[in-house]
Amino acid sequence: MRNAGVISGVSVAHDRATVREIESASSDDVQTVVKRLLACEGVSEAFSLQTCNRAEAYVVTDDATDGRRALDDFAPDVRDGSVRHMDHEESLRHLMRVAAGLESLVLGEDQILGQVKSSIETARELGAIGPMLEDALLKAVHVGERARDETAINEGAVSLGSAAVRLARAELDEPICASTALVIGAGEMGTLATKALASVNVGELVVANRTVSHAVHLAREVPGVTTAAGLDDISDLLGEADLVITATSSPDYVVDATHLSGAETTILIDIAQPRDVDPAADELDGISVRDIDDLETVTDRTAERRERASRAVEAMIDEEFDRLLAAYKRKRADEAISSMYEAAEHVKRREVSTALSKLEAQGDLTDEQRETVESLADALIGQLLAAPTKSLRDAAGDDDWTTIQTAMRLFDPGFGDLPGPNAADSSTPRVDIPDDHPIEMDRDVSEKEVSRRMLEQLSND
User: Fold this and answer.
1) Binding residue per annotation — 54?
2) Which of 129, 296, 377, 429 is least surrounded, with the fewest CB atoms within 10 Å of its CB?
3) Any idea where the domains of the chain sit in the sequence?
């Protein structure tokens, strides 16, 4: 299995982009994005992640230029300053930070790790995850789990749902215990918002969902929900609510100005991606529309309390990042080493066969004698290749790809030039390994001479 290639990434996230820009970058679903990227020239692997505050994509190519080209159209309608392009090492580190919750709007929140895992499964089902992304993504998940198990990064962390409740409590004219709250959406984010509202003993708590049975199920799960409803009567529900939190997965607006004609003083907090509430509704008298951007002030205070934990996670990422790079380098060396052993084994089989044939001509051989000849050949190969094996692994650790390339040429004369570090990425140079590694012998050179030259070269190395 080949492990060549470099990862290129692109991100449109809350730290640089507005809700509208993230929404634009998420216009296609994850499956569509991954399929489109796989169809791009030179792309061998692809991955995409979409949450309420980020849209990202990653590809593996033999050359970083191809990767950048494949991602150029990821967010065509988003201003350049909102799009972050990442090279191989930036992509690896960023994936770890995302999974650990360091890149989340709510520092350390737990939902992102589940979203990363879900996106991995989606890409895997499409056959888009190969050896490069497999290692990178599994390492990111490992870091995310370590961060939450070994640090307090998620202690006291608020979800977007609970952050919305905090914002609502600050803006409501009356105590929340005397208010009527409506949650639109019964999925993961809607559930979190419902639980957060129930925990502060809101006066009336209504859950509405397009599929009524899902709303009923959530009402049974969360004590404090007074009513479960569908969206057919959404105008009536909005007219009675003081606070509305929307969190559906609808591609279109669920709430617009016409639905709010009967509302008087209502705060709508939209935590959906794409947005559920038409921004134009904010222009209506008595109506206040808030979105994810408005949650920054709430989450900043939470981030300050976990600053020490975040520093510990940063150190953890540094450690795991170095391990991942070392693993990639070892794989590059192992490919060359594998070719070396395959070439040696190829010559060994021929020479052992020749030797046994000559010995047979001198008299019958016992099974024990045959095993002795085989063992001798295996021992010679093992001893002769031990030193170059260590040298190749040391070369990979030192980024000495000239030595790796020389080894590949030695054991596979048909092997082409490896591109230099500038052609792709200095940490992960391309090493293409053919499926077979036979020694191509000149017609004027005997098999024994090929073996002698090969072993002499190995001894000199």
Assistant:
1) yes
2) 296
3) 6-156, 160-303, 329-460
